[in-house]
Design goal:
This protein has six helices and nine strands, in the order ββαααβαβββαβαββ. The protein is α+β, with helices and mostly antiparallel strands.
């Protein structure tokens, strides 16, 4: 669906169930997302069924593949608002050994370029905890600008936006 220089992004499918189920149930990622706790396989299947249509369901979950077609992470568009053409964006590279290889920047840049051409999204926004230096650096590198601060799940976070 979306190609970068190092990555390829496609909608999550049922074939990805076990990988996504493992990622969603890894407590390491709960502290930087809105995940309330563990999910059953059926809940993940239900999510997959609705996570591929941005206009209809307001969200789009894309898996990130490296150049060998290995799943390395996910990029989510969520809270899509057609009227304002805005969406939240989140990204995760699952395996620590795959981080710092440029996959996240490549996937985020490719997604930005895709939606600049498609025109269905004019603004992306994200919320990042102050102590998540890697994510702050990533989003700044990809042209996001600090918009302000918010308290999210009891912690201070920075809101970033990117006009497309």
């Amino acid at each position: 669906m979306i190609s970068g220089e190092k990555t390829f992004l496609r909608p999550v499918t049922q074939a990805d169930l076990h990988v996504v189920h493992g990622w969603e149930n890894d407590p390491e990622f709960w502290n930087v997302s809105e995940t309330p706790g563990p999910f059953s396989e059926q809940e993940i299947l239900d999510f997959i069924a609705t996570a591929g249509n941005l206009e209809k369901y307001g969200q789009l979950r894309l898996v990130i593949l490296d150049d060998k077609q290995n799943l390395v992470g996910e990029l989510d568009l969520f809270n899509y608002d057609q009227a304002s053409r805005s969406a939240g964006v989140g990204i995760m590279i699952a395996n620590e050994n795959e981080r710092k290889k440029g996959y996240a920047a490549d996937a985020l840049t490719a997604t930005i370029q895709h939606y600049q051409k498609e025109k269905s999204i004019a603004l992306l926004h994200c919320l990042i905890y102050n102590d998540n230096i890697a994510s702050i650096s990533l989003f700044r590198k990809c042209g996001f600008e600090k918009q302000g601060h918010k308290i999210f799940k009891g912690k201070d976070a920075i809101q970033f936006i990117r006009h497309l």
